[in-house]
Amino acid sequence: MQLLHPFMPFITEEIYHLLKERNDDICVKQFPQIEQPNVEILKQGAQLKQDITSIRDARKKHEIKNSEQIKFMGNPQVQAFYSRNKSLLILLQKQTNTVYFEPSTGKDFVEYSKNEIIATSAEKTFFLYVNKEIDKNAQKEQLNKELEYLKGFLSTVEKKLRNERFVQNAKPEVLALEQKKKADVEIKIKGIEDTVSKL
């Protein structure tokens, strides 16, 4: 009501008082103090967003309909992250129409079946199981193309960070953003390299 009040003052004031008996008016009501955000939750949300995008992209590339529910499992990073964050796993499954399952106890998953799509997100690798045979060579070629692009991007960022004029004149937040880009890309490159080496 407070946000809408400048645009619809009389209506919002009326609704505000009809909802509950009050002694104040919305036109003079103060907004609550802004609290410090929970950085950990924001990081988890950003990771979840990356993972959802990665799985959706993989489905799209391999023409797997969103209505088709598929099973998936992940590398140790996926298992560790989602075992600590069960609520995020539920969201991931809902947003990607997938069902998560873990490998048998004591089995380190390194073999790739004929009907498995690989999706990478930072250091995480997802293995999506579908009802059709997947061309592993095409998948490897696609990952190598992505790797080539990321290495080119990393080279551009590193060149910028080696430029003394840029480093001296850039605002601290701009410099921090470039360093974060570099760190994120390096993690993603390592994840894809690990995946390609196992294919």
Protein architecture, described:
The chain is of the alpha+beta class and about 200 residues long. The chain has three domains: about 1-35; about 40-135; about 135-199, Helix Hairpins. The protein is built from seven helices and four strands; from the N terminus they run H-H-E-H-H-E-E-E-H-H-H. The chain has helices spanning about 10-20, 40-60, 75-85, 85-95, 135-160, 165-170, 170-199; strands at about 70-75, 100, 115-120, 125-130. It has a four-stranded mixed β-sheet, with helices on both faces. A hairpin with a 2-residue loop joins strand 3 (about 115-120) and strand 4 (about 125-130). The longest helix is centred in the last third of the chain and has 27 residues, at about 135-160.
Assembly context of the chains = single chain
pLDDT < 50 runs, ≥5 residues: 105-112
As laid out across the biggest beta sheet, the strand order is: 2-1-4-3
What is the rounded distance between the termini?
56 Å
Tell me the number of strands: 4
Number of domains: 3
- Can you summarize the main beta sheet? 4 strands, mixed
Which labels suit this protein?
single chain, 199 residues, 3 domains, 4-stranded mixed sheet, 7 helices, 57% helix, flat
Summarize the structure.
Helices cover 57% and strands 10% of the residues.
Task: Reconstruct the topology from this structure.
Layout: H1 9-19, H2 39-61, E1 70-74, H3 76-84, H4 86-96, E2 98-100, E3 116-121, E4 124-129, H5 136-162, H6 164-169, H7 172-198
Parallel strand pairs: 1-2
Antiparallel strand pairs: 1-4, 3-4
